[in-house]
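Example 3.2
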Amino acid sequence: MFRAWLVVSRSLVVFFTIFPMWLGYAILFVRQRRFGADIPAARWKALHTRFAPRFYRLAVRMRGGLIKVGQIISTRVDILPVEWTSTLSGLQDRVDPLPWGELLPYVTSAYGRDPKSLFLEIDEHATAAASFGQVHRAITHDGEKVAIKIRYPDVETLLAIDLSVMRFFMPLFGMFVPQMKLGSIQEEIARALTTELDYEAEAKFTEIVHKNFAGVERITIPRVVRDLTRTNIICTTWFEGKKITDPTLLNDPRMDRRALLELVIEAWVKMMYVDGVFQSDPHPGNLLARIDAEGKPELCVVDFGQVKILTKAFHDKLLKSVMAFITRDVESFTTSLVDLGLFKEKDAEAMRPTIDKILERYASMSPEEITKMDFAWLRTEVLGKIVELRGIVVPQDLVLYGRTFALLAGLTRQVDPTVDAFALARPHVMRAMLSGGPPEAPAS
């Protein structure tokens, strides 16, 4: 009975929030397309400015999949106007945790026994909370400190509701961009969200990356404690650190911010270009840091719910596109973008003038201009040019790849805005790119 009420009530709230948005756009769209009305750009901008915060508030209020949907579509600058992408990019998994009393029956059921029989101590106050689960600190009976990540009860139901509503509205919003196939984007979003709920896959990827970083100094990937991991619970070793943007950490006189950022870059370059398995959500909540006994920074990467496999084939295509960009070879750069799936071969001729403009503007930037450039700005500007051609939808894998760089660039500015991220990353990237890239088949 409760679940039925949850389905109905959540569906109605979401529907009656989103439908007026669609109607507002539809009225102007029909007036413009059907009756030839001249709708000023300011009128469209006013709708974007009003509706984007409304969806933002809905996502924060309803939690669950809506926050994740908002985060994912905020990266689609090839489809959504900047008012939407800039607003939704502020969505973070900062949700209030559930009380331990509500989770205890669920945890007991998952383990098949009272968790007190498995843990010497469990901190009932969550150390982190997100859309799909929350983390508690615990100590095993042999004295090992661990983190237990618990998936929320009914989160699958909430996500199913949100995805059903999205399937209903996607064709309706598709009328505004008939040249684009929004169905494929919907499928990619659903696949990404469903994957993040798969704690068994997350535990597996955590083990893979942990193994890949064995022996790497000052970079920690938690070890999965298999005996205490279940379908809805992941247990890993505990890292005693603070969120990487914590002021008390960064303002510690012993903290070398540049050295800390170099660890972040080293970690992601290795994951992306050497190992081929990378965590694609490097926001501050997923990075912990501390100062070791020698006064040097240490980094810990957590949460492998969003992981991408970067194949050697993709690496080779990417290297080709980078070299073409640097040499301002329009023909080769156009071909490389086709190979990456940005657009089809039949669109190549129409794309060349736009690509020529992009290379002329960006490949000739002065060192000072490059220093001030960030990945988020580059992504927005370039895709803004590309979308001038109707019908181009950037593949989700490429968007996710770009989003990872944008998050890393944003993180760099938060930790130390004086650091030139390009200069810091350049030697690491070049060594990795020239090393031959990830193996033909990344570890599984």
